[in-house]
């Protein structure tokens, strides 16, 4: 199964992430992704997305990780409520916006 997820690429204490599509069984650190779909810098809140490619992969049946889902909802690329991604909480519980 293919999944759209974040892959950390920043150096120590300076996080930066790529939005990539990869096989769900692989580790994000393995580097074995199929395509780069965007990037996210949490310090500056800068989000760059390849909208058409993301819609194409979702149309082909790719799943989206919870954090990537929240970024795409915030960018108005997909519809739906944000998902609570706090560790230790159930994943199915949507966040009230």
From TrEMBL:
Enumerate the Pfam families for this protein: Ribosomal_S16
InterPro entries on file = Ribosomal_bS16, Ribosomal_bS16_dom_sf
Molecular function (GO) terms listed?
A: structural constituent of ribosome
Does the keyword section mention Ribosomal protein? yes
Top-rank taxon:
Bacteria
Cellular component per GO? cytoplasm; small ribosomal subunit
What keywords are assigned to this protein?
Ribonucleoprotein, Ribosomal protein
Q: GO BP, one example?
A: translation
Q: Which family does it belong to?
A: Belongs to the bacterial ribosomal protein bS16 family.
| HAMAP family, A to Z | Ribosomal_bS16
Concerning NCBIfam families, the annotation shows: S16
Q: What is this protein called?
A: Small ribosomal subunit protein bS16
What is the native source organism of this protein?
Answer: Candidatus Giovannonibacteria bacterium RIFCSPLOWO2_01_FULL_45_34
């Amino acid at each position: 199964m293919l999944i759209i997820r974040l892959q950390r690429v920043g150096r120590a204490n300076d996080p930066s992430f790529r939005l990539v599509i990869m096989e769900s069984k692989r580790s994000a650190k393995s580097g074995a992704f199929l395509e780069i779909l965007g990037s996210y810098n949490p310090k500056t809140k800068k989000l760059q997305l390849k909208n058409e490619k993301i819609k194409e992969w979702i149309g082909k049946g790719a799943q989206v990780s919870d954090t990537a889902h929240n970024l795409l909802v915030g960018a108005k690329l997909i519809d739906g409520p944000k998902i609570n991604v706090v560790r230790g909480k159930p994943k199915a519980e949507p966040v009230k916006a």
